[in-house]
Amino acid sequence: NLDEGVEIGGKKLYYAQSLLNSLSEHLKFTSLNDAKIGLENGTYAAYILLPSTFSASIESINEKPVKVELEYELSDKLAPESKAGIVKDIEDFKLKLSNDISYMYVSAVMDEFHNAQDNSKLVLDNDKKELERLRRVLGPAGTLF
Predict the structure, then answer these.
(1) What distance in Å separates the CA atoms of residue 119 and residue 139, rounded to the nearest whole number?
(2) Measuring CA to CA, which residue among 104, 10, 112 is closest to residue 59?
(3) What is the distance between the alpha carbons of residues 61 and 88, in angstroms, rounded to a whole number?
């Protein structure tokens, strides 16, 4: 996870870490150097690299969207029949991550909608007060005095 995060409202957000917390227990978080050594010595079957721009790419949805590009590498020590299973696991990981990003975005949109809905009472109350003031200025037939 090389995600450098993004700063929003004076707070640093790391979308990759938030999303990774909900994923498979079969993952091990390590340095890129350790992952490469692990591939060479057979400790790891593969590694997936989340880029430094991960959070920035997620935030780009509100401007000009930038696709998140994940990189992965498989161990040369894998048996051919194992490689297909590992590639499927990686594709499943990417799909789950994509679905979680979509859910996060829809959830944020719905939160904004609910905030607007909650604040609509305040707007309606203000409109009601303004309407009452206008009625005081206008006569019973709706004409100005």
Answers:
(1) 32
(2) 104
(3) 27
pLDDT of the residue at 111: 66
Cα-based angle 115, 119, 122 (whole degrees, multiple of 5): 175
pTM of the model: 0.67
Segment 26-41 mean pLDDT: 89
Query: In sequence order, which ranges of 1-145 are alpha helices (DSSP H)?
Result: 15-20, 32-41, 54-59, 80-137
Q: What is the mean pLDDT of residues 120-143?
A: 72
Characterize the bridge pairing of strands 46-49 and 11-13: unpaired
Task: Say how many Å lie between the first and final Cα of the chain, rounded.
Answer: 71
Alpha-carbon distance 130 to 19, whole Å? 47
